[in-house]
Amino acid sequence: MVTTFMGDPYVADCPTRRILDRIGDRWTVLIIGVLGDGDARFSELRRRVEGVSQKMLTQTLRGLERDGLVRRTVHPEVPVRVEYALTDAGRTLLEPLRALQRWSIEHLGDVTAAQEAYDHTR
């Protein structure tokens, strides 16, 4: 059963704020980006998302799975193979997150220049 709830992320205890915290997290953005290319094993995710620790990758994947954005599939093989994939809900995040990635690439020079100007005045 899906509950309809009109949230307000500007209210401190609103559940929408926790959702924004999840999808705004840097590791979430990068993991969803990788999974947008297709299913991946833990080791592939760790290799493609440079800088993420095993602990953070595990925590982020568990949170994404709990939130219904990522599906974890265990294949009963020897050795056991575990794959991660975006759910339908997770795939709906691809377009907005890719838009943010494009924006960061397109505006990298402007932001860097602004940071340097700011730092120079301090």
From TrEMBL:
UniProt protein name: DNA-binding HxlR family transcriptional regulator
Database matches in PROSITE patterns: HTH_HXLR
Domain HTH hxlR-type: residue ranges: 14-112
Pfam families noted in UniProt: HxlR
Keywords: DNA-binding, Transcription, Transcription regulation
GO molecular function, one term: DNA binding
InterPro entries the UniProt entry points to: HTH_HxlR, WH-like_DNA-bd_sf, WH_DNA-bd_sf
